Amino acid sequence: MKKLFTIAFLFISISIFSQETINAMFYNVFKFPTSLPQNRQFILRDILDEYQPDLFMICELVSENGADLILNTSLQNQVDTFARANFVADTSNTSDPLQTMVFYNTRKLTLISQKTLPTVYRDINRYSFQLNVDSQNPIYLEVFVAHLKSSTGTANQQTRLQMVQEVTNELKLLTNPDTFVLFAGDFNFYRATEPGYQEILNPNNAIVLVDPANAPGSWQNNAALSHLHTQSTRVSNSGFGGGTNSGASGGLDDRFDFIMMSENFKTSPRFSYVTNSYKAYGNNGDCLDKDVKDPSCTGIFSQTLRNNLYDMSDHLPVVMQFNLNESLRSKSFETKPTIWFQSSNVTSSSIVLGVNQSQLKSSNDRLKIYNVTGHLVGEVPINNQTSISIDTNHLSNGMYFIKLLGTTEVLKFIKE
Known about the structure:
alpha+beta; disordered N terminus; 416 residues
């Protein structure tokens, strides 16, 4: 009996040890990084520090510089090393700079490829991942990220449907029957009867998708479904700029943001959805038509988090968790960069760098600035600082390079 107990204990221990959690988040980051308040990469950092996503999907990214700010600053405090997909400007509507992007934990995920799906209104992007499992039987994850047409009316509903059909048509190309799929985005659906929503859940799709929340109905201004509302985080958009740059107002009363998943997440013994983990992150469920930071909106999400969400965007993120019931491959130790931009790398007056002091030695405690011809134009001491502001007013307009003494790390910036 004692021997049997020992074997059972070892089996349970191994099973527990081999299980990993994959945290997913989708977030409309609202015209990042250009909309107010300034330096939102730090606000986003505090939000991500709390949730610790492994797969971070976004829309309303304005520029590649914004993607770098998120990767190098907002995700800097994560335990594991992160990477991002390639930035590709929108091909469906060249006058609209807003794009999607994914960031991912490189210990758990490998990005195999990406593909742009042009639509009638705005590109949808497909990101193909493989999980880093220690197995000869791979696990594939296909991620689609979209920002569908907004506003009410039959014409807008039809545009949303046409955009969704680009994804459901793409599902026909996924020939591996065990492929896992996530379809995330700001879908701008008002109710479950919308044709675009019904198209996502069509049981005749090549890969069947389901809504983890399983909450059909009319979501708009519905108190019974208020825990799913993601827009707007603000009753008033006063103080956030003017016009469309200030975002939506009116308080939390719409479920616009979604992560849909393939049906096999509900049945797979290898990679499975954690029941009830799908949430409108920061929504305590008692905030109908209020600011998300309203003190009366009490619950599991803290006042500090809700203050940050209020400042960051007019949308809330949506999150969900998955259990990966297999061990990950051991990877060689990956170090994070020692220096990175905390500000834009395009400036007229100054730039701000972050510094990983744990990787510094006494021999590399100075930054050297070179122009494009290779001439040294300045030196900056680090002096135990973790954030360094560098005045560029004395520099002529053009491109410059910052080198960390004693390393191969080089950053590029442009003085305007």
